[in-house]
Specification:
D-Maltodextrin-Binding Protein, domain 2; alpha/beta; 327 residues; 16 helices
Length: 327
C-alpha cells in the first residue's frame, strides 16, 4: 500500500469523528413515542437534523406548562406541543415563539363499540350532530381528566347539546383504554392515533368521529403541534431555529408523500416497542393532519381558543405568538 493511499484512508477515518464533533446539540421536550413526535423521529432517523449540523436530543415531556417554562432556563431550546400549552404561557405572561406548525388538526379519534353503533341506528357517516347525540347515556373512556382529548370530546358534546348526557371515564394509558372497551366497561373511547385504529382493526369498535380528517369542523384547523422556542434563543440563534425548521419541513413532506411502509421502516427503531402493523396504521391515519406549509393561521388560533375556553386569552393573542419569519 503506497503512502498516498495511507494518507487518504487516515483522512477518512478521522473525518467522521470530527464532523460529529462539529454538530450543534439542542434539546427538545415532547411526548416521547407518541405520534405527535413522528416528524422529530423521522427527521432524526433520516439524517435531516445531521444534514443541518444538529444533534437533536429528545427530552420527555415535563407536563402542561413545564415544557415551555424550561425554555427560560436555557437547558432546553425547543418544545413540540399543542396550542393549549401556548395559551397557558400567555396566561403566565411567559414569552414564547411559535416558529413552525407540524399538525393542523387533532389526532384524536372517537370510536364506539360495534354493538352500540348498531343499536344507535345511526350510520357512521351521518351528520356530526346526530352522531354526537347518539352518545347520550353512554360511557366514553379517555386517558386522563383535563387532557386535550377530554377537552375536545367535551367541546363536541357542548356544541351538539349533549353536554352532561355522556359519562366520561378517565382510564389511564391507551392499553388500559383498549382493555376497558374489550371488557365492555365503557361503550367507546376518545383516544389519539393509533389506538383508535387499533380498536377498529381488532373488531372492538367502529370509527365514529375521525378528527384527523377534519370531521369536527368547529375545531378544524387547530394549533395542534408546533415547534416553540423562546424569543431570546431565536434572536441569538436564528440559524439554529431555521435549521430545525428545514429538517422538520423535510420530514413532514416525506411523511405526507412517501409510501407509508417506507416511513414506518425509517422510524421503526424509535418506536421499537410498537408493532409494525400498528405503526403503519398510525402513519396512514395522521397524514391528513399534517401541515405541509408549517404556517399558523388566525383561524387556527380562533378554533384553539374556542376549544380551550380559558378566560382572558383571545385569538389575537395566540396568533401573535406565531412568527413565520424563520421559515
Amino acid at each position: 500500500m503506497n503512502r498516498t493511499l495511507l494518507v487518504m484512508l487516515a483522512s477518512l477515518l478521522f473525518a467522521a469523528p470530527a464532523a460529529a464533533a462539529d454538530l450543534e446539540t439542542v434539546r427538545i421536550t415532547h411526548a416521547i413515542g407518541s405520534f405527535e413526535s413522528l416528524p422529530i423521529a423521522y427527521a432524526r432517523a433520516a439524517g435531516y437534523f445531521a444534514d443541518e449540523g444538529l444533534t437533536v436530543v429528545s427530552v420527555p415531556s415535563l407536563g402542561t406548562g413545564q415544557d415551555l417554562a424550561v425554555l427560560d432556563t436555557g437547558d432546553v431550546q425547543f418544545n413540540l406541543g399543542d396550542g393549549a400549552h401556548q395559551i397557558g404561557a400567555i396566561i403566565a405572561n411567559r414569552p414564547i415563539l411559535d416558529v413552525y406548525n407540524v399538525f393542523r388538526r387533532s389526532l384524536t379519534g372517537l370510536v364506539i363499540s360495534v354493538e352500540v353503533a348498531k343499536r344507535s341506528g345511526i350510520a357512521a357517516g351521518a351528520p356530526l350532530a346526530d352522531r354526537i347525540r347518539a352518545l347520550k347515556g353512554l360511557k366514553i373512556g379517555v386517558g386522563r381528566s383535563g387532557s386535550l382529548v377530554e377537552r375536545q370530546l367535551r367541546h363536541l358534546l357542548r356544541i351538539s347539546g349533549a353536554e352532561g348526557d355522556v359519562e366520561i371515564v378517565p382510564l389511564g394509558k391507551p392499553p388500559d383504554l383498549l382493555v376497558a372497551l374489550e371488557n365492555r366497561a365503557v361503550d367507546g373511547l376518545a383516544v389519539r392515533i393509533p389506538y383508535d385504529r387499533t380498536a377498529v382493526t381488532r373488531g372492538l369498535a367502529v370509527m365514529w368521529i375521525d378528527m384527523a380528517v377534519g370531521s369536527a369542523r368547529s375545531i378544524d384547523p387547530l394549533v395542534m403541534d408546533s415547534l416553540v422556542t423562546s424569543p431570546e434563543f431565536a434572536e441569538r440563534h436564528p440559524d439554529t431555529v431555521r435549521a430545525m425548521i428545514r429538517a422538520l419541513h423535510r420530514a413532514v413532506e416525506d411523511i405526507g408523500s412517501e409510501r407509508p411502509e417506507e416511513v414506518r421502516d425509517t422510524v421503526l427503531p424509535e418506536f421499537g416497542k410498537m408493532s409494525p402493523a400498528v405503526l403503519l396504521s398510525g402513519i396512514e391515519a395522521l397524514r391528513p393532519a399534517l401541515n405541509v406549509t408549517g404556517v399558523v393561521t388566525h383561524a387556527m388560533a380562533e378554533n384553539t381558543v374556542r376549544l380551550d375556553r380559558r378566560n382572558g386569552v383571545t385569538a389575537d393573542q395566540l396568533f401573535a405568538v406565531y412568527s413565520g419569519s424563520y421559515q
